[in-house]
Amino acid sequence: MRLSKTELSIGIEMVYSITFALVFMPLFFHERGTHLAWEDLVGPGIQILVFTIFFFSVAYGALELARQHEITEDERGDLIQAKAYKAGYILYELALFIGVGHLLRTAPEHNGDLLFTTLALLLAVSLTKSTYQLYLHRTL
Amino acid sequence: MALKNHLKALRTTSGYTQEELGSRVGVSRQTIISIERYRYKPSLELAMKLSHELDVAVEEVFYFE
Questions:
Q1: A11 vs A3: CA distance, rounded Å
Q2: What interface predicted TM-score (ipTM) does this complex get?
Q3: For chain B, what is the domain count?
Q4: How far does A12 lie from chain B, in Å, by closest CA?
Q5: Cβ neighbours of residue A75 under 8 Å, at least 6 residues apart?
Q6: Which residues constitute the domain of residue B58?
Q7: Residue numbers in A near B40 (CB within 8 A)
C-alpha cells in the first residue's frame, strides 16, 4: 500500500498529536491540582512552540523533498476536508462544553463570568457559521 | 440508478497510468482510483476534463446503470 502525500501529511499530524500527548501532557498532568500562574506557563509554552516549529519544519520539509511533484489538492480532497472539518466542529463544541462543565464544577469562583463568556463565544461562532452557510447557499 | 464509468478500460487503452491521467487533469492518483472504483463521483468539470483527455464523449466514460 503506497500512501499519498496528503495521507502522509495527515499521518504527520497524528504523530505530532501522539508525541505531544506522550511528551507534554505528563507535564500538565502533574500540575492538575495546582494553581498555575502565567510565569509557570511560559517555560512549557516556549518548549511546545520550539518543538512544534522544529517537528513540522523537519517533517513537512522531508515530505516535500520526497514527494515534490505530487498533486495534493483536488475536489475529492476538498470534499474529504469539508467532512473532516464538519466532524471536527462538532467535536470541538462537545469538547468545549465538557471543558467548561469541568471548570464550572472545579473552579466555582467567577464561574458566572466563565459561563457568560463561553456562551457568548459559542453563540457568535454559531451565528457566524450560519451566516456564512446562508451566504454560500445564496451564492453558489 | 447508480453512476458507473469505463474510466479504467479507457485509461489503459490510452496508455495512461493513474498518476499520469491524474496529473493531466489536475487531480491526485487516489482520486482516479476512487472514480474507477465508483467510490467517488467526479464533478461535471472533472468528468469533462477526463473525457477530453481520453478523447471520447463524456457519456462514453460515464453512464447510469
A1: 10
A2: 0.89
A3: 1
A4: 19
A5: B27, B31, B42, B43, B46
A6: 3-64
A7: 76, 79
Q: How far apart are the first and last CA of chain B?
A: 5
- Its pTM stands at 0.80
Rounded Cα distance between B31 and B49, Å, is: 14
Pairing of strands B3-5, B62-64: antiparallel
Provide DSSP, A27-87: HHHHTTTS---HHHHHHHHHHHHHHHHHHHHHHHHHHHHHTTT-----HHHHHHHHHHHHH
Number of residues that make up chain A = 140
Q: Tens place of pLDDT for every residue, chain A, 140 residues?
A: 788 888 999 999 999 999 999 999 998 888 777 777 888 888 889 999 999 999 999 999 999 999 888 878 899 999 999 999 999 999 998 998 898 888 888 776 767 877 888 888 889 988 999 999 999 999 98
Q: Which residue of B has its CA nearest to A70?
A: B28
CA A51 centroid distance within chain: 16
Residues of A near B (CB-CB distance < 8 A)?
Answer: 4-7, 69-72, 74-77, 79
CATH number of B37's domain: 1.10.260.40
B53, amino acid identity: E
| Residue pair B64/B1 in contact by the 8 Å Cβ criterion | yes
